[in-house]
Design a protein that fits this description.
Length: about 750
Amino acid sequence: MNAFVLGMRLLWGTDRRGRARFLLMALGSALGVACLAAVLTIPSILTAHDARTAARETRTGVGGSFIHLELKDPYGTQPLRRVFVARTGSGPAPVPPGVERLPSAGEAVVSPKLGDILATNPKVAGLVPGRLTGTIGPEGLGSPDDLYAYIGTTPAELPDAVPLDGFGRKYSSQRIIESPTLNILRFTLGCIVLLPLVIFLSVCARLSGESRARRLAALRLVGLSVKDTLRVNAGESVVSAFVGAVLGVVGYLGVNEVMARVGLPGLHWYPADGRPDASTVAVCLVGCPALAWVVGQFSARRAALSPISVRRTGERKPPKMYGTLLLIPGLGVIGGYCVLSVMGRDPSGGSASSVLVPGAVLLTGAGLVFGLAPITAWLARRLAGVAKSLPVALAMRRTEVDPGSSLRVATGLVLLVFGASLTQGVLVELDQVSRRTAPLQEYNISLSELGPAQRVALSKVPGVRAELVSYSSWNSPSEDDVPVANLVVATCSQLTAYSQRVSGCVDGKIMQLRDDRTPFEYDPKAGERYPFEMANGRKAVLTVPRERVDVHPYDVSVFDSGALLVPPSLVPPNLVDSAGTLTLVSDADPATIRSVLDGIGAIAPTASVDPVGIVIDSLAQLTVIRSLLAVGMVLGLVIGVAAFVVSVADRAMERRGQVTALALLGARAGTLRVVQVVQVVLPLVVGLGAAIVTGWLAESSYLITGGGAVHWDWEGLPLLFACALGVLIAAALASVPMVRRHIDPEHIRRD
């Protein structure tokens, strides 16, 4: 305790420089802990959402007094869930969470977000028939933007209903993110946020490392023991880290209150969901000081054991190459999967890859961190031997002597670029499994749910490339399993534009589409006649022609095999809308799909939309994952930039004595600035180059083992190179003002 008190007295008894260093260490720790709390509370937000949705899940049973029917429809890009309930007996009524009582016939209880939509858009009232008698409380909603409704009706209006036993299940079927995807998300966030965060907190714990080492060496020389010397250093590091941890937790609480009300694209939460629990607070308040203590013990050991060499700036030992060896197993596994893919073999599937790939990624990231210093020192020694320029020679010799500073300056940004590669791979893989593989997306809407003005407006929705109309043949309601035929109103040019391959199409004739790859239960034969109902009650009869069009449509499409291709000029007039379907066609990228669905929801909010081949929940899940990964990248960027700025500024302050000595020897200001820039850029070039190569290989191995169609993300490479180039330019410009050619003898004074 005496040594700890001595450390604090020395801290506050020094000049303003020491107190400023303490303040910077605390603020840096506060920033890091705030980011740590944000990452640790993301699973809590998702868990709270799933717990509330599980509590409102309906249970079926026998002998209850209610029946129910659940419906889910897309409202724009959001799922709209409605639970219709009807009383069938005199027994007690089950009560869902967030609702005082189940609505009676003609009543409805809705979520606040759905209530706002009903108030601002009267056309949506058809989705929620009945008088609104209340709103669902937060305990009955997954999130504030949930679209949910309990609608009371009569048993006669629910012919397909099932008995209602109660509410609440152990597991939710409406999870915001599925468990396998959540595990991938956690691993990715750990790589892009937590690894750089450890480096950043270590940097904050070692601010003014050389000055502190000299001060500790002086204490050791005047008689302080080794243990007490380490305790003195730990006192300053632990206290600053603890103060920063408290400030970080308080700062995160304030940010959470604001962000919970603003939300992220696809993800909103209640403020209580994002408040850290006891375990998270304990990790932040204990983990950060513990890390500072470990770093302090490691950094002060040389001053405690060899004080003379520290005071007289003795020669330092070169960094060991052992850390670089971690790259061998990491790159071996990653490169092995890439080689198998190049050889035409498919290594996807199996449980081995789910363990080997994450382990190889962690080993590769650790190899980048621990191998940066020895590789930089070796390269600097080689460049210094051949350099003809004085600034370059000075920079290389300084980097050779102190390669550890490059670890603090560049590691955060290197890990950020490495994590960006993994993030791209996760997004590419999720994009493959969450949407159709076809380049086109179709949306089917029944014509009976649209008016003439709505049909015109839908064709003008941004992103819609074409609109097609199809009809199903009529069959008697009293007969089952009657063969049917479909006709599609389109031209040969439309068929060619929106199909994978077309041959044999002739304009101006009715022809049958034929895809030899796909068998169908009903296969209209040439010469068969099919009636199509008209608005006046009559039937228009079409005969299946002998002429056929060989077509390969994209997945499930309106151009199904067996359908009749009818030119617009030969379509029977006034076909009944109840048998017709409007199909809109757009590009299949997620942004366009969301835009088109939002446009359809704004024009025809009560229409049932079938986005062919995709599930609206998957699209919503992809939006949430993109938002969380974007948050992770922003946090990683903040941490990486903060680590760089703090390290460069600290190194500039620590080297003022060297700059003063060079200035007294006649070095010009331009020479000193070039030396500073080269010292910063060299480790960044080495680290970023290695991060791009290893990160892209790690991303490729993840895609290869994922079993998707895309194995090599060539489109992502230019983005990584652009990011790395931007980081180098920004780092070089930021390093220039860190050098001041101010001659102050105090900077080279020796005690």
